[in-house]
Amino acid sequence: MPTPVTQSTPRELARRDRDGETYRVLMIAPTSFFGDYGCHVRILEEARVLQGMGHRVTICTYHKGRDLPDVDIRRIPSLPWRGDYEVGSSRHKIALDALLLWRGARSMPDIRPHVIHAHLHEGALIGCLLSRAWRVPLVFDFQGSLTSEMLDHGFLSPDGLAYRPMLRLERLIDHASPRILTSSEHAGQLLTEQFGYPRARITHVPDCVNTALFAPAPRDEAWAARRHGLGIPPDRTVVVYLGLLAEYQGTSHLLRAAQRILAHRQDVHFLLGGYPHMERYRGLAQELGIGDHVSLPGRVPYEGAPDFLRLGDIAVSPKLSRTEGAGKLLNYMATGLPTVSFDTDVSREYLGELGIYAQRGDADSLAECLEGLVDTPGHREQLGAALQCRAQELYGWERAGEIIVKAYDALMR
Q1: SS3 breakdown of the chain: % helix, strand, coil, rounded to 5?
Q2: Predicted TM-score of the model (pTM)
């Protein structure tokens, strides 16, 4: 009697099609990748660690961004009416995301992915559509609440008509994702408590740091020359920041804290690397009368971030958001910098008892914490060394890569 013929599902075909234990991964990144900050670093390092483990990763993203030689990046065409760079929430992202859906769909037959790895909520929505059309498993890389981010950027008002519909949309996107990766334990609690997402379907993949790239270095003549090139006198203690310059990042609070410190001493310098809005904050520093003690050199390429951070004696993260990740803290830690942060759950998760915490949104408290470290160089050195050890022990990307692959395995099963 002939053996019955059964039709295999795309998921079964994908399972049999795997080359040994390797995966083909399609990442959806609804942002101008690569942009040298925040979530871009997480996307890049995840792709690199997966590729180092033998997996193939392709990233579909917006038309703007910096190409990288070791990553397969596929971009959407630019919008005829909006070709400039976008950061954060914008009505133009609707058109950008529609094009990103088209780019992902065009890439599916070529890549034949075993798994779709979607970043941010827009990416998860696009990934869900692709996942259902091609019946390929979906992983959602959750890096903060969509509605909270839109509130932080001033794009939504908690009293506005759009607020509750956006909350419902966020909940819908979350629950359409069969597996969610979170960058912090706090994010996992947010998903379960506020959005009712099942805890069993959450995998914690913390933001990590490349500890071979970010590490302390000798303070030699080259180091002194770099400081001099930025106009920093040799007798000043340097407070360093590297990230986006924006209100929700606490940039104005940091400059006002600097004003309070510099009102009675001149031996401190503030080195703020990042973009956009450099001119706005240079203007604010001048208005506050501290322009001679503040350097804003602009965008710092990711490859140059370690050397930039090594110019500092103290690191600071005045980020106001309660829900977004804070990957810059790990770069500070691995570089051996004592770190002052506004007191949030995410900051405490990374820094632990070794962090110095200022009251959230309080420039006076931030100034007090920073000045306490300026006056205690021995304590600074001890904290920096302990934070470097914590980064090496808990936050290496190799461990994160193993966790991600186990999440893929669970979906394939």
Answers
A1: 50, 15, 35
A2: 0.85
Region at 52 (left for phi over 0; alpha for psi -120 to 50; beta for the rest):
alpha
Residue 304 · residue 278 · CB < 8 Å: no
Query: Which among 97, 94, 177 is positioned nearest to 142, based on CA atoms?
Result: 177
Q: Would you give the DSSP letter of residue 241?
A: E
Strand partners, 238: 269
Query: Which tokens sit at 323?
Result: 């829900």
Mean pLDDT over 59-77 rounds to 95
First to last CA, the chain: 32
Average pLDDT over residues 276-293: 96
Residue 131: closest CA among 242, 37, 14, 32: 14
72 or 94: whose pLDDT is higher? 72
What is the maximum span of the chain, computed from C-alpha positions, in angstroms?
95
pLDDT at 2: 37
Angle in degrees, CA 113, 94, 118, rounded to 5: 25
Beta bridge pairs of residue 61? 29, 75
